[in-house]
Amino acid sequence: MIKNIEHIEKISCFDSFQWNDIPEFQKYNFIFGFNGSGKTSLSNIFNLVTSKSNYSEDKKKELFQDLKNHDSSKIKIATGNNQKLTYPPTESQNNRNVFVFNSNFISDHVYDGTKGNLKKFNVSSTELNDPEIKKITDNIETKEEIIKGINKKIKKAEEDFSQIKKDYNSDFRKHFANKQLSIDKKLPDASSVPTDSVEQLQEKLNLKIKEHKLSKNQKSLEEDIQSFSQLTFPQIKILKSDINKVFQDSVSKIATDSLTKKISDYQEIVEEDDVRKVEPWYKFGNELFKKISSIQNKKCPLCDSNINDSYIDLVNSFSAYFDKEYEVFITKIDEQISLIEQQIKTIKETNTNYEKLLKLYIKYSDFINHSPSEFTTIELERLLSEIKDGLNKKKNNSNKNITFDFSDIRTRLMNHNQVMEELSSYVESLKENLLSKIKSPSEIESTIRGIYKSLVYKSLNSKLNGVEKYHSNCELRIKTEKEIEVLQEEKVQRLKDLKLEAKKVGEFLIRLGINHFTIDLNEESEGDNILVKYKSQSQIKSRLRNTLSEGEKTALAFSYFLSKVTIETKNPSQTIIVIDDPISSLDDNRIYNTASLIYDTFHDYKQLFILSHNFFFLKYIYPSFRKGKSCYLISNGNIDILPKSLQNFQTPYYYMIESISSFIEENDKNYDEARKYLPNYIRRVLETFFSFKYAKLTRAKNVNQSPGLDDFIKDYIDFSSLPLMTVDSITNENIKDKLQMINNVCDNFSHGNMQQLENTNFIANQTLDSISKDCLSIIDFFDGIHFQMINELNTAEE
Fold it and tell me: Does the entry feature the keyword Acetylation, yes or no (predicted)?
């Protein structure tokens, strides 16, 4: 909707108009203006912002050249959503669908002043009133809407396909720089869509991309496979029986009971800390006794007592011990200690290998289904260390009986060995798995491209909720387009049988009350193509300028406008209508019919503008529109709200009096502007006042003319019978001279010929002031009550 005419700069009579403090346009807008006020210029401004289908760009340029007064000439119109329509236009400007009826429309479409040439309607996509064509058109439009919806879906699907390909190609290039992911331009059919989900395909893709990276470094892979081969996880064996035997056996069991007792007795008196000092005696006692045997007086090496008598017994008693048994026994302990140390070392090596295995697993975890079994050797190592400590104690005290609970270590060994077995199998399977990854990079890239293609198809299928819908829509579009082609052929054939322009225009002529002639269209003529046939005559006439009256030409042009708009407009709620004085030269009955027809035709359109100088026409049409209407006054290059003195379009009389009064009261008068309208207003006000005062409708000398001011001065006013009174500068003695003065000034200025206008088109400022005051004083002199009521009307309006 057009909200206002924000600015008009140097266009026709509009010098620099700004829309200030004026209510915005509504749905129905009535613009009154006297002749020469700028109505036609305003209607042509609407032509500058209509769509090019209604008014071509070339015609707009010509029109603008005719309207503009300066290189800075421009217009700006405000519409809904804060949009602006300008001329010269902006590149992104979205002009409105506006139809304008004015003199330009008449000359362009019906009658250019010399010949009648009815333009063909644009019926290529129009809803027509012919039942058969309307049915075909409705059918076509229904199918076109179907195609529009299908095209929207197809376009959306193709855009989605293009975007998905673009996205995956971008992802592909992250892994394969300077390469493109080539995928068919056509959308896939349902059979090409993979069964795997997008997530599954993505997992495959990620794995293959990693395989591709792996395959590009074969040497590193082979080295890592070799590293796998060197990782071993042996099992741990602990012979409980051997260790227990060492723990339970001792050298004292080999000695005799006597020696055992003696040694035991001796050991009892030795503190525990000194046992380690006694233990060497077991080892070197035999050699010691051998050396003592060569001595005359033999003494005990331990207690220094005389052992001459018992020496032989002691040597015999120790003989079983002081041979090789002690060394053998200690050797067995050392062997067990060595075995335990070896197992501890094996465990440490196992832990080291496990760390290496974990590093390799992390490196190749993408290609390995599960991680290696976890385990800990802390407790096992601790238990082994305890056994080792026990053996060392046994070694230092060979006769000490040591016990050890093997239940815990037995369980831990079993678990540990089971894990070692699993890790050994794990290493072997890992080697085989990695060996299978030694492939050609180009072979893997080909597989990757295939997965990307599957991802594109699967993603698209998910996006479209089934690609079969796309192909179904394509088939339906082809089918519907063929059906439209058939209907278009039917429509063309039907249009050939109709002369729509003549038919529709004839219908509107009848509604305007013109039924005494009909028109037809001569499609073969490039000149006068309007054929006129009067009912009272048999002859068909084609020269419009000599055939129809001015009123009939106006009715014909407006009927054509009504026909063109109603036929070419598919959406009235989005169409704006501008009508400039459609009742030129029409009589009162046809003016009423025109007003009624405009309401019936355009009341449901988006917006309506009616411009006119005819009060009878506006008076007829204004009440028809009950809501959403506003009235404006256009005058001397300015647009303003319609004053109350002109509201309801009864008569311009009160408005002209108000204008005269306003001029008198102005402090800073614009005399140049006032000269253009004030003399005419003064003359018309006085003529209207005296017509009502003296009830005179016609001149005494010519009954076909309304009386002028000169008639009232000479024929109707009896100055001798006027009351003795004074109103301002008016008295009964000078009133005739005052009227004659006004008549001389205003009548020449308003009605004179060109020569007179050239001689009298200047009125002195003082004269304008004088005749304006005298005009109102004369009305007050003749009818004080009337004058008082006018003042009250003006005061109430203010």
Answer: no
Report the distance separating Cα 422 and Cα 425, nearest Å.
5
Same domain as 115, residue 27 = yes
Are 108 and 43 in contact by the 8 Å Cβ rule? The answer is no
Q: Please tell me whether residues 592 and 709 are part of one structural domain.
A: no
**CA atoms of 110 and 184, how far apart (whole Å):** 57
CATH of the domain at 107: 3.40.50
Q: How confident is the model at residue 673 (pLDDT cuts 50, 70, 90)?
A: confident
Asked whether residue 446 is assigned to any structural domain, the reply reads no
| 430 within domain boundaries | yes
Phi, psi of 86 (to 5 degrees): -130, 160
Distance CA 746, CA 708 (A): 11
pLDDT 10s digits, 627-658: 999 999 998 789 999 887 777 667 888 888 88
Please report which residue ranges of 48-130 form alpha helices under DSSP H.
57-67, 103-109
Task: Of 616, 627, 604, 686, give the one whose Cα is nearest residue 650.
Answer: 616
Instruction: Render pLDDT for 380-424 as a digit per residue (tens, 0 to 9).
Output: 889 889 888 888 888 887 777 788 888 888 888 899 989 989 888
Q: Which residues contact 436 (CB under 8 A, 6 or more apart)?
A: none
Note the pLDDT of residue 760: 42
Whether the CB-CB separation of 305 and 299 falls below 8 Å is answered with yes
- What DSSP element (H or E) covers 79? strand 74-79
Segment 346-355 mean pLDDT:
90
433 shares its domain with 359: yes
Domain boundary among 390, 412, 439: 439
CB atoms under 10 Å from CB of 692, counted, come to 11
**Claim: this prediction has a pTM higher than 0.90:** no
pLDDT per position as a tens digit, 755-797: 333 334 578 999 999 999 999 999 999 998 888 888 887 776 5
Return the C-alpha torsion angle 438, 443, 445, 447, nearest 10. Answer: -100
d(CA 573, CA 525): 36
Q: pLDDT, tens digit, for every residue of 523-558?
A: 667 677 778 887 777 777 777 777 788 878 888 889
Number of domains in the chain: 4
Six-digit token string for 331: 């050797």
H or E, element range at 484: helix 468-496
Same domain, 355 and 237: yes
Q: How far is the C-alpha of 141 from the C-alpha of 126, rounded, in Å? A: 9
Measured in degrees and rounded to the nearest 5, phi and psi for residue 364 equal: -115, 25
79 forms bridges with which residues in the sheet? 2
- Residue 593 and residue 626 in contact, taking contact as beta carbons nearer than 8 Å: no
Q: Would the pLDDT of 456 be above 60?
A: yes
**Closest to 521 (Cα-Cα) out of 109, 119, 113:** 119
Do 337 and 277 fall into the same domain?
no
Q: Nearest to residue 99, comparing CAs of 145, 46, 23? A: 46
For residue 542, give the nearest of 554, 529, 555 by alpha carbon: 529
Instruction: Tell whether 534 is covered by a domain.
Output: no
Measured distance CA(645)–CA(790) in Å, rounded = 10
Backbone angles phi, psi at 193, to 5 degrees: -80, 125
299 and 366 together in one domain? no
Structure tokens, 613: 């100088």
311 shares a domain with 344: no
Tokens of 268: 């009892």
Instruction: Tell whether 583 and 632 lie within a shared domain.
Output: yes
pLDDT of residue 751: 42
Antiparallel, parallel or unpaired: β 28-32 and 629-635: parallel
Domain boundary among 304, 320, 336: 320
Instruction: Write out the two tokens for 507.
Output: 């219908």
Would 607 be classed as within a structural domain? yes
pLDDT greater than 90 at residue 578: yes
- Residue 271 belongs to what domain range? 255-320
Summarize pLDDT for 122-146 with one digit per residue, the tens. Answer: 765 554 556 777 888 889 989 999 9
